[in-house]
Specification:
The complex is a heterodimer. Chain A is α+β, with helices and mostly antiparallel strands. Chain A has 8 helices and 14 strands. Chain A has a 5-stranded antiparallel beta sheet. Chain A has a 3-stranded antiparallel beta sheet with strand order 7-12-11. In chain A, a hairpin with a 5-residue loop joins β1 and β2. The longest helix of chain B is centred in the N-terminal third of the chain and has 62 residues. Chain B starts with a helix and ends with a helix. The mean pLDDT of chain B is 91. The chains are: A alpha+beta, B alpha+beta. The interface between A and B is large, with 79 and 89 residues.
Chain lengths: 406, 666
């Protein structure tokens, strides 16, 4: 075996270079704190880092979404609380107005106060966020939800939309409530309408609210069909929404001569057809807000009390108002409970979110970050190796036969 | 026996020569490619004294081994060092597309939280633009790499040509020197050194052919240097992919294509890298294409802040310039196409592969998937008689007029020629061509972002059951459900009966006082059996009812005019982050796979580079230990020859003394 002088140099230099490359890598790992400088250092780890970073970005976003949801729930709760306090006041005023010893003037001032409170509550129901979004308008955040119409009644202009916010990977939290659900809590009287191509020769009215309500709740939309045979004789059938005749005996193909009045379960129909008719009877219960209740009471209080009858009218109005305020407050309470439940759920979600963030960060760190102890140990080892190579290089190249030839 | 004086002077000359050879060795201790020389002494019986001859220490076998190992190492090294660039590019902080997507989806969440906020919308739009820029930037960086490969191929070809010419020249010079009986070791060393340099660029077979010197052949037998004739490499367009530079070999007036897989060396490494780069580019393009299309479709299915239906977010993936760019006729085709384009019909079905369509007969073709190598013959596909019957895996052809449409893997390939399509013609198809580069935002105003659903769902306030409903647009492209502006056509109402189990009917409430049953596909939707959670297909959209229904419960559906606070479509945008919209993966997991793939390839390339370097080093060591100069050895020889010289001089001196002694005696 022989070795050439060039080899001695090139081999030593190569080895020292390798050591220096390794040292530079370790230096970078320690300086940046990152074990993986490029994906090829650990391809599987690099792919995991992408996935974990994605997860972390989502978790951080969910966290800020939770904060946003909490803020808007807080706002909603505050507004509802204020409205509730105003309703307590309305309730107090109504009780006060029921006092028979009051004069017309006293009632007038109560009415005035009621009107002011109504405006205050209407303002609260039309609360806007800092960015100008009406919080109780459903999906129509740029539309003022409670607007007084020509007759002085407040109409709801929004819809039932409820925005959902992503607070977890597969957890959407409804944020806010539509005004229709929170405030339109006072049921009016059941109304029955006739739907069909020609309903002009029919009229319908509700004689007994409770009976009619029960009828429609169990039967759905009713179908009234009037047929005419060859001799021009009329007969009618009244069917429930499944197509079964109502009544016992069944109201099926009952012959009649117009005009005829038909009564069934509190619903009264007059039939005066000029030909066959097929029509649908639909019951609807209009919902009102507390605003209408207060205004109605104010209207009643402004009527002068002259006799027992007008005194009774005031008492009736007060009694109705108290019932209505009660049901409106019940609805507010339900909403507040709901908000509280959502707030609690958000808290829990936040906790688990933070825990998940911690786990993800820990995992990410274990893949991505330099293990300093190992890295520094390796660095020292590599340093020792390099120093040794350098010493050996000096000694090996320092030896030459020429030194000994004189 | 010759006299002492003659022997002495002969010996003196021999040793002087030996000393000069030693000097030559010492002088060339650092010369690259220098083979040490030794002096052989021989005695001459008749004339007496010693005679010398010069030996160039070399081993043909070891030299060839070094050349072969050099090619292998150069290929591995150039491939690895290039892959490292791609590797860093994909995952680096500024260019990582997954980070860009994270940033976009995060901005989207702000808009989900508050869709009425103009700043949120503008921010989202800005993020979308930034995302488009990230894709374009990635595309440019990858394209720069392609250009770099092209220019390196060109400069490598120049180097190869120069080296080949020099080797051919040296072949001649060496031949001449030998013919004159004056062989020159330096020329041999030089030629070996040049062959070594050439082996860095490509894989060579070196054959020593007697007096005509070295003949060099490429790995597949194509000649590069024969005797004093040198061939040359030149660059040209790749006939099947005009965006790529290909190499061709010119030898003796003949031109032949050089195939990627046979070339080896640094050039082979470049070409190997190019195929990885193509794969990465296709993946990035596919990601851009599926992203653009999904966003556009979702945007079309939504309603903007002005209660208008959304318009496309990005430029259409099927614009005519993009469709035309996806198809390239091969250079040597005989048919001239009047039109040829590729339309993407289902981006999620795209595989990211490129294809080659070859006309194999008067009424047949073969489609080859370039990445899997699988070929699909027309005989295995279903031929349909009109264009609107085309589904994936079928084709329409009017062979006589030269029209062919092939539907496969989520795309339709259209060929229209003025006459019949010639047999043997082929077309290369790159379905994702330019997708990332074309990622331009088409919206300019944040209010145009369609974050709301166009369909308002309103349950009646006096419903008794727990009924809830949702609506999904199923036909965003033609939006048949809103033929009149800002109106559902027609507005609908679902009404439940008191049947057991519950049934529902869907009414058209265009006239609210006279609802009429809605007719879908020819049958009225009356008395339908209710099943909670089942989607009910309507006119261009579907509704899903859940919960318990009571008799008379109603839900109406209308156009969501003024629904500015609605974020249902924004939630659908957001859900795409985890949907499998790109060959069965989500975008970011596909990107992670790409990073992993490139990372693994790079790591393997690095390992291979290190391994082939040690192989090269060990064969270089073997050669160097035989032919390299060792100074201590030369020092010893110096002493050895010097002493022999002194002794020879002593011979002359002795001879003189003897002569003088003789004279004195006379």
């Amino acid at each position: 075996m022989r070795i050439s002088t060039q080899q001695i140099y090139s081999q030593s230099v190569f080895n020292m270079q390798q050591s220096q490359v390794k040292l530079a890598e370790l230096n970078e790992q320690i300086a940046t704190g990152k074990r993986i400088q490029s994906p090829s250092d650990d391809p599987v780890g690099a792919a995991q880092i992408v996935a974990l970073n994605e997860e972390l970005a989502q978790l951080e976003k969910y966290e800020s979404n939770i904060g946003y949801a909490q803020n808007s729930l807080d706002l909603e709760e505050t507004v509802i609380e204020d409205i509730n306090i105003a309703m307590d006041k309305m309730s107090e005023l109504a009780v006060q107005a029921g006092n028979t010893t009051l004069s017309d003037n006293d009632r007038q001032s109560i009415a005035n106060e009621l009107r002011e409170l109504t405006e205050y509550v209407a303002g609260l129901m039309n609360t806007q966020t800092a960015s100008g979004e009406y919080i109780f308008a459903g999906s129509q955040g740029h539309t003022q939800p409670f607007v007084q119409d020509g007759s002085g009644q407040y109409q709801y202009q929004g819809d039932d939309g409820q925005r959902e916010i992503q607070v977890g990977a597969s957890y959407l939290m409804p944020m806010g409530d539509a005004g229709a659900d929170v405030f339109m809590a006072v049921s009016g009287e059941l109304e029955v309408s006739l739907l069909g191509s020609d309903t002009s020769h029919l009229t319908v009215s509700v004689e007994d609210q409770d009976a009619a309500d029960a009828l429609f709740n169990s039967s759905g939309d009713l179908n009234l069909s009037i047929t005419q045979d060859g001799g021009g004789n009329y007969s009618y059938s009244l069917l429930d929404s499944a197509g079964n005749p109502l009544g016992d005996p069944a109201l099926s193909n009952i012959a009649f001569t117009p005009p005829e009045t038909l009564e069934h379960e509190g619903v009264s129909l007059t039939l005066n057809p000029t030909g066959p008719v097929d029509t649908t009877l639909r019951a609807e219960t209009p919902q009102h807000s507390i605003l209408d209740v207060a205004l109605e009471l104010a209207d009643a209080l402004e009527q002068p009390v002259t006799d027992g009858e007008s005194q009774q009218a005031v008492s009736d109005a007060v009694a109705k108002a108290l019932t209505d305020i009660d049901s409106a407050q019940e609805q507010l309470l339900a909403t507040t409970t709901h908000i509280g439940a959502r707030g609690g759920a958000l808290e829990k979600q936040l906790d688990s979110n933070l825990e998940l963030q911690l786990i993800t960060k820990t995992t990410l760190s274990s893949i991505e970050d330099t293990d300093l102890t190992t890295a520094i140990t390796e660095l020292q080892l590599e340093q020792t190796l390099l120093e040794a190579s350098q010493v050996v290089f000096g000694q090996v190249t320092g030896m030459s036969l020429f030194d000994y030839i004189r | 026996m010759s006299n002492l004086l003659n022997i002495g002077s002969q010996s003196l000359q021999s040793n002087t020569y030996a000393l000069s050879v030693t000097g030559q060795n010492i002088a060339n201790v650092n010369t690259a490619g220098y083979s040490r020389q030794t002096v052989e002494f021989s005695s001459h019986a008749a004339l007496g004294g010693s005679y010398t001859s010069l030996e160039r220490v070399t081993s043909n076998y070891l030299t060839q081994q070094v050349w072969a190992d050099q090619s292998v190492y150069s290929k591995a090294d150039s491939y690895a060092s290039k892959m490292e660039v791609l590797d860093n590019l994909l995952a680096a902080d500024g260019t990582n597309l997954s980070d860009a997507l994270d940033s976009y989806f995060s901005a989207l969440q702000n808009a989900v939280d508050d869709p009425t906020s103009s700043p949120n919308r503008e921010l989202l739009l800005a993020e979308l633009e930034a995302l488009g820029n990230s894709f374009q930037q990635m595309d440019r960086l990858l394209e720069d790499q392609q250009n770099l490969i092209d220019s390196q191929l060109e400069s490598s070809a120049d180097q190869v040509n120069q080296l080949a010419a020099n080797i051919a020249y040296l072949n001649g010079a060496i031949q001449q020197a030998e013919a004159q009986g004056n062989p020159d070791a330096a020329l041999l060393d030089q030629r070996d050194e040049l062959v070594g340099e050439l082996a860095e660029y490509l894989d060579l077979q070196v054959v020593e052919q007697g007096s005509s010197g070295y003949s060099l052949y490429l790995d597949n037998g194509q000649p590069l240097v024969v005797g004093t004739t040198a061939g040359s490499l030149s660059t040209t367009f790749d006939s099947s992919d005009l965006t790529h530079t290909a190499l061709q070999l010119n030898f003796g007036g003949q031109q032949s294509a050089v195939h990627d897989d046979s070339i080896g060396g640094l050039i082979g490494g470049l070409l190997a890298y190019r195929s990885d780069l193509d794969g990465a580019q296709n993946e990035v393009d596919l990601m851009a294409l599926t992203f653009i299309d999904s966003m556009n479709q979702q945007q079309l299915a939504g309603m903007d802040l002005n209660s208008e239906m959304g318009s496309a977010l990005f430029n259409d993936i099927n614009s005519s310039s993009l469709m035309n760019g996806r198809l390239t006729p091969t250079l040597d085709n005989t048919t001239s196409l009047s039109k040829g384009w590729v339309e993407i019909t289902d981006p999620s079905a795209l595989t990211g592969a490129e294809y080659e369509l070859e006309i194999t007969g008067s009424d047949s073709f073969t489609l080859v998937d370039q990445s899997s190598g699988q070929s699909l013959k027309s005989s295995a596909m279903n031929q349909v008689s009109s264009l609107d019957q085309l589904t994936d895996g079928s084709y329409y052809a009017d062979w006589n007029s030269g029209e062919l449409v092939v539907a496969v893997d989520g795309m339709q390939i259209h060929l229209e020629a003025s006459s019949v399509l010639a047999q043997g013609d082929s077309f290369s198809i790159d379905p994702t061509h330019d997708a990332a580069a074309s990622m331009e935002l088409a919206l300019i105003d944040g209010s145009q972002l369609a974050l709301a659903s166009p369909i308002r769902v309103s349950p009646a306030s006096d419903n008794q059951g727990t009924l809830q409903a949702s609506a999904t647009v199923t036909d965003p492209t033609s939006s048949t459900f809103t033929t009149t502006e800002k109106a559902l056509s027609p507005p609908l109402e679902v009404v439940f009966s008191n049947s057991e189990p519950p049934t529902y009917s869907v009414y058209d409430t265009s006239d609210p006082d006279n609802p009429v049953p809605l007719v879908v596909d020819g049958s009225p939707l009356t008395d339908q059996l209710y099943s909670s959670g089942e989607a009910i297909a309507l006119n261009g959209f579907s509704i899903t009812l859940t919960g318990e229904a009571s008799p008379g419960d109603r839900i109406s559906f209308s156009y969501n005019e003024n629904g500015v606070s609605d974020n249902r479509n924004a939630l659908a945008f957001s859900a795409m982050q985890s949907e499998d919209l790109m060959h069965g993966e989500s975008w970011q997991s596909a990107y992670a796979s790409l990073i992993e793939q490139v990372g693994t390839d790079t790591k393997n390339a690095q390992l291979q580079s290190t391994a082939s370097l040690s192989v090269l080093q060990s064969s270089e060591q073997a050669k160097a230990s035989l032919v390299g100069v060792n100074l201590d050895e030369e020092a010893a020889k110096l002493v050895q020859y010097q002493q022999a010289y002194q002794a020879s001089a002593q011979l002359i001196s002795t001879s003189q003394t003897l002569f003088e002694t003789l004279l004195d005696a006379v």
